Fold this sequence. Notes:
The chain is mainly alpha-helical and 149 residues long. 41% of the residues lie in helices and 10% in strands. The chain is built from 5 helices and 3 strands; from the N terminus they run βαααββαα. The protein has helices at 19-38, 61-67, 81-84, 103-115, 123-139; strands at 6-7, 86-92, 95-100. The chain has a 3-stranded mixed beta sheet with strand order 1-2-3. The longest helix is centred in the N-terminal third of the chain and has 20 residues, at 19-38.
Amino acid sequence: MPFQAKITRARFVLGPFTSEDMLAIGNVVVDSIKDRLHKGLNVNDQQAKPLKPGRNGHRGYPDYKSARGLQPFRDWFWTGHTLRALKVKQASENRCVIGFIDPNADLIAHVNNLRERAFGISPKDRQVMVAAIKTVLRTARVISVRKAA
């Protein structure tokens, strides 16, 4: 069964966003983060630290990745499970939580983030988020309450 984001609803929506709007914005940001990680960029939009090469004639992690046809740099991708677990976990009218839905993927991401901070909102991710917010605001339904005469 695929993971379903938890959408919480309030009785009255006073802000410009609904839970569904925040879920859409969160999904755009998740896609941006995944694209950045796949390019091997850290949270500052800079190239991530190189993977450690092998020592004493032994193959290192970059060699193992290359042998499998993967990119030999830090892109958080070996089997694809970690990045597939990156989802919008919760969305409400005023908040969107992005994270890893699998505990093992969450642990891997935590350890990788300790090595070098890569999970988070980078400056380019923030631009994508602002563009998504503006798009939702342009298409948002305007509700006005008028006094009947």
